[in-house]
Amino acid sequence: MKRIRTGSDRALLWAFGAGVAVTLLLILVPVLDAIRLSLYHAESFISARTWVGFANYTRILSDETFWHALRVGLLFAFTTIAAQVVLGVLFALLLDQQFPGRPLVRGITVLPYLLPTVVVTVIFQWLLDGGLGLFTIWSEQMGLGRPAWFENPTSAMLILIGVSVWTWTPFVTVCFLAALQTVPKSLYEAARVDGASAWMRFWHITIPMLAPMLTVTVLLRSIWMFNKFDVVWLLTKGGPLSATEHLPVLSYRRAFSQFDVGGGATVATLSFLLLTLLIAVYFHYFPLEEKEAKP
After folding, report:
1. What is the pLDDT of residues 77-90, one digit of tens each?
2. Which CATH architecture has domain 55-285?
3. Which of 123, 139, 199, 282 has the fewest CB neighbours in a 10 Å radius?
4. Radius of gyration over alpha carbons of the chain, in Å?
5. Residue 14 has what DSSP assignment?
6. For the whole model, what pTM was predicted?
């Protein structure tokens, strides 16, 4: 093992170790505190706490509200991830082609991802405003009336999905576009000489080469979309009639609106355990590294 001889190397090592320690501290402390709170009954974070053990878990798991929020969260995460991956691959393939102004178009493509979530939600709330919204006015001009965008469960969910896809597809596009730069062009040229169609080149060359990036991207988007709170809360607050209320919103509502901190922590802990289980299953079927073939 190579010895660290210079002071700068030691300082860099200490800085790296301190960064890892702080990161673990910021992650482990909230997780452990949430698990601890889930074993108590408390009406606020500063009120007296009563030990109830696993009674909160029994109560939450027997509540249909929890299972409804879980179904909503899975629907929201699956649809947004599927749309982001499909559109991300499509846009990456288009941006990988040669055309005038490609650097400018690539830069513009990233803009939605750079906007703060608050700005995005305010823009779409204005566009979908029931009185002065641009989309509402267009709908009325086309003879479709003034839709109650956020008062209908189906349209509210579709709006959430649409806003999420519009905002985070650029991230997926950039990831796949970077992966495409590593694909040797000679593979496509050889396949073209052998008479392979565009679809065959995409399916047998592009997809296998993008597989590692696809695995990581789907994993990251699954974690982020399953835990996505801000866009849901800012646009619908889980409504109408809890139609868009998923587990993060349910946890927040129980802790801060219903003064059930133990119940809110229990929902958060169950969400954490469920996501951990899903990630473990995902890694089992889609490992980041290919398994070595047995002799």
Report:
1. 999 999 999 999 99
2. Orthogonal Bundle (1.10)
3. 199
4. 24
5. H
6. 0.85
